[in-house]
Design goal:
heterodimer, A: two-stranded antiparallel sheet, B: mainly alpha, Ammonium transporter fold, 17 helices, 60% helix
Chain lengths: 233, 357
């Protein structure tokens, strides 16, 4: 059985994006994405967890019987999250203080259990790893962009505290876009997250409809071209 | 064969249309609105004008974006009513961009993203009020003591423009003062008893409207008169306003009897803040309220309870906006469970017993 890696990548990044299409993991999304840096940090942490759990669960997929799969998955996920939690606390302590509570809560993140159930428990190791990576990447991208939009409108900065996450080399990312900005508090609060995410999802649907229409048109034009070409002979 | 065409019921016809209803509600609002403008001077007039202009512009923009006919919807008066209601709930000397943000949020996100007139789940005016209150707590709680137009207390003509468009109030301390509800809340946290706090409070001023407060909410009597006009004209029914006001009145009275030092009485709660305006003009919005009388009474009781609870134990002095939005969210549920009796059947849907036995 050949695996279509291109399809897996496309699924994770766009077609079946954890946020925009599956609408999973909205709790950390709304709570954490007050800045682009927080979104990126949360996304990366989730991505790492997703990759490791996909790998481990794919590895054990023949041993875990369907009856005990949910507790087994949760146990595996919880162990991985604990490791990530401790590592983040040690390496990126300042960012950890910001994201704090939400890192342990990755255990209950539906994206991770969802991918374990839907993909990793049925596929070989490499495809599962790729799936975990692209799903995590899709999650990270949406979280970062969402955080950026909320941060710009809400507090007029972009990638504030990026050096906490990426080290001092990335301090140039920290921008003060609007000076003396008085802030638009509601964008920082959860309603702002809902609003921006609503616009994102609407945007994805618009793009998908446009693409589908164009494909339909191309499909309709193709036979006509052939017919034209043959008639001109 | 006869040529008579078969027409299905119902055969009664009422000459009501959306523009007619909206016009009537606007007429009913005008006394309280004009009183507010007179009481708080020209800055409030500029604020009302900015609100209406923003409302019309955002409505036209949304209709254009959603490819709907612009002229009939723009002229039906609904957006003017929404803009006026938002302006009436704002602090009278709020800067212009508060009105612009609030009204455009209400019209574009609160109304058109849900599908336009008749489709919105939440009352757009209250959505704007709550959004602004959460996002800009300072601007939304800078209240003005009455400075009637053309009186010696009023700011100069140039200053009125600075207040609305310049974004700051010259000599602010001379003009600002707390609303009755805000005053009560602040003083209660300082452990003063209600009788001390309300020693120089006058119910007459609250009825008349000679108080700090939102642009068009201060005058209980004018709002009440407008509401009675609407009931008289059959634009609204009595169920929602009576349920809201009676619930908060009864709750406040009960708590005031239990501990008069900590809880203000029923009249205080009914006459102050947005209670009157919301009861008659906002909660009665036919789109966001339940459609059956029994459902409307439940809806009103819910608003009354939440309003009183937020005012009394919450962190905001006035919670009527949150109350309306929460009950708006429950409206589909209320309409699902409380349905009118079908003609010829009992409430449970069984056929009525035949009289012929």
């Amino acid at each position: 059985m050949t695996v279509d890696y291109k399809a897996i990548v496309k699924e994770g990044l766009w077609d079946n994006n954890p946020i925009l299409a599956q609408q999973l993991a909205l709790c950390p999304l709304l709570a954490v994405t007050t800045t682009a840096t927080n979104g990126l940090g949360m996304g990366l942490a989730t991505m790492v967890v997703l990759m490791i759990t996909s790998l481990v669960i794919s590895l054990f997929r023949d041993i875990i019987t369907p009856e005990v799969r949910i507790p087994a998955f949760i146990l595996l996920i919880a162990s991985v999250v604990t490791v990530v939690d401790l590592v983040m606390n040690a390496v990126m302590h300042d960012l950890y203080k910001v994201l704090g509570l939400f890192i342990p809560l990755i255990v209950t993140n539906c994206v991770i259990l969802g991918r374990a159930e839907a993909f990793a428990s049925r596929h070989k190791i490499l495809p599962s790893l790729v799936d975990g990576f692209t799903m995590g990447l899709g999650f990270t991208l949406v979280l970062t962009v969402l955080g950026a939009v909320r941060e710009i409108i809400g507090s007029g900065t972009l990638f504030a505290n990026a050096s906490l996450l990426l080290g001092n080399a990335f301090a140039f990312l920290e921008l003060q876009l609007i000076s003396d900005y008085r802030g638009f508090l509601i964008m920082i609060l959860p309603p702002g997250g809902f609003l921006v995410m609503g616009f994102f999802m609407a945007g994805k649907r618009i793009i998908d409809t446009r693409v589908a229409e164009r494909k339909k048109q191309e499909a309709a034009n193709q036979p006509a071209d052939i017919a034209l070409a043959s008639s001109s002979d | 064969m006869s040529n008579a065409s078969l027409i299905s019921g119902p055969h009664t016809h009422a000459p009501t249309s959306v523009p007619y209803v909206m016009r009537q509600v606007i007429y009913a609002l005008l006394p309280a609105l004009l009183f507010g403008i007179v009481l708080f001077g020209l800055p409030s007039l500029w604020l009302v004008m900015v609100s209406v202009a923003t409302g019309l512009a955002s409505e036209a923009l949304s209709l254009y974006l959603f490819k709907r006919p612009i002229k009939p919807f723009l002229n039906d008066g609904s957006v003017v009513l929404t803009s006026l209601l938002i302006a009436m709930t704002l602090p009278p000397w709020a800067p212009w961009w508060i009105a612009v943000l609030g009204v455009s949020f209400a019209v574009i996100i609160g109304k058109h993203l849900f599908g336009g007139l008749g489709q919105n789940v939440f009352n757009p005016a209250m959505l704007a009020r709550v959004m602004l209150l959460v996002a800009f707590p300072i601007e939304m709680t800078t209240w003005i003591t009455p400075a009637p137009i053309f009186s010696s207390a009023a700011p100069s003509f140039v200053d009125t423009f600075i207040i609305t468009f310049g974004g700051y109030i010259p000599n602010a301390d001379a003009f600002t003062g707390a609303t009755p509800l805000g005053h009560l809340k602040t003083e209660l946290t300082l452990h003063h008893s209600v009788s001390e706090i309300l020693a120089d409070y006058s119910y007459f001023n609250s009825i008349l409207g000679w108080n700090s407060g939102s642009l068009g909410e201060t005058s209980a009597i004018l709002v009440l008169l407008g509401g009675i006009y609407l009931i008289f004209r059959r634009i609204i029914s009595w169920h929602i306003p009576v349920a809201i006001l009676a619930t908060s009145f009864v709750l406040a009275t009960v708590f005031s009897i239990i501990d008069p030092a900590r809880y203000a009485n029923g009249f205080y709660h009914v006459l102050n803040g947005g209670a009157m305006l919301v009861a008659f003009f906002i909660a009665t919005d036919p789109v966001t309220a339940p459609s059956t009388p029994r459902g409307q009474i439940m809806f009103g009781i819910g608003i009354g309870i939440i309003e009183y609870v937020i005012r009394t134990w919450g962190s905001f002095p006035e919670g009527v906006g949150f109350a309306v939005l929460l009950m708006n969210a429950l409206t589909p549920l209320i309409d699902h469970y409380i349905r009118p009796r079908i003609y010829g059947r009992t409430r449970s849907g069984k056929p009525l017993p035949s009289s012929q036995g």
